Amino acid sequence: MKIVVLAGGISTERDVSLATGSMIYKALRKKGHSAVLLDVYLGYEHEADNIFDVDRDWSENLGVISEINPDISAVKALRKENPECVIGPNVIAICAQADIVFLALHGQNGEDGRIQAMFDLLNIRYTGTDYLSSALAMDKAISKELFHKYKIPTPKGVTVSRNERQILDVWNIFPCIVKVNCGGSSVGVYRVEDADQLESALEKAFAFEDRVLVEQYIEGREFSIGVIDGRALPLIEIAPKVGFYDYKNKYQAGSTVETCPAELDANVTRAMQSCAETVYRALRLKTYARMDFRMDHEYKFYCLEANTLPGMTPTSLLPQEAAAVGMNFEDLCQRIIDSSMEKYK
Ligand SMILES: Nc1ncnc2c1ncn2[C@@H]1O[C@H](COP(=O)(O)OP(=O)(O)O)[C@@H](O)[C@H]1O
Ligand SMILES: [Mg+2]
Asked: 27: helix, coil or strand?
C-alpha cells in the first residue's frame, strides 16, 4: 500500500510524535509498504507529484529536524510562509496520493479530531478513531461526564476556568492533581500537597490552557490498557522510580519500571480490562486506543483518560502489551491499518 506517516506538528508533544512516526515508518517499510514520512507542520517544499516514486529514506530528514530544536518557536521559524497555518506545504497534496495516512500525531491538532475532520472532508483515509471520538477523549472534563454516565469509576474532580477561582475556597481533598483539560504526555500536570500549593499549580496550568481539572490524587499503582477493535490487551503496570508518571518519567529511559503483563489478581485484571472496553464504547472509539488507570490500596481502580493516538515506538506501552500476546511491532502497525481500513467499507 501507499502510506503517508504523518508526525510532528506544533503541539507540546511534537518530539514524542516524531519518535513514534519514524518507528512506524520503518516498520511499514519492513512490511513491504511504500511509505512517506512527513512532518505535518513543515511539510515538503519540493516537487510533490508522484511522491511515492521518490527513492529516499524519509526518516533521515525528520531526525535532523527534531535535533535542530524541539522548541516550538524555533520550529515555526523554519517555515517559509504562513507560520500560523498548522498544515505545511504540500501536506494535503501528498496525503491525497496515499491509500491511507497513518496518524502518528500527538496532542493538539492531531489527537483532538481536527485533522480527522479535515481528512473526512477531503476524502482522505486515516488510521485510528474518527473526529468526534477523538474530540471526546481529548477533553478530560467531557470524558469524565461520559464516565459518570456509563458508571466508569474515575477520580473525584472539578473543572476550573481561568475566571472562576471559587474552587480555591471549597476544594479540600489533598493531595490532589491539577492538570490541563486537553493536555497529554503529563505536560501541565502537577501534584498538589495542600491548599497553599493549589493556587500556584493552577497558575502554572493556566499558562497552557483556559480550562483545568482538579482531581483527587489516587495513591497507589498505575496501569494502562490498550484496546484494539473493542477488545482489551493485557495490562501494563507503570512504576516510576521517583515521583509520578510525569514527562521525564515517561520518556527518559530507565526512569520507570514497566511490567507487562502486570502482576495482579486475575479477577481484578479482568475487571479493569472490561472497564477499558466500556470506556472504548462510552467514548464511541474505533480501531484502537489506550486507557490510563490508577488503583488504590483497596484494589479499587479509576480511569484517568483515554488516549486515541497512543505512543507507538517499540518500547511504548501499547506495543509492549501487543507483544505480550505475540504481536510484534510491525504486525501491530499492520493490524492498525487493516482495522482502520474497515472504517471505510
Ligand atoms: N487523579 C490522579 N491520581 C493520581 N495520579 C494522577 C491522577 N491524574 C493524573 N495522574 C498522574 O499524572 C499522569 C498524567 O495524567 P493523565 O490524566 O493520564 O494525563 P496525560 O497523560 O494526558 O497528560 C498520570 O499518568 C498519573 O501518573
Ligand atoms: Mg495519560
From this structure: helix
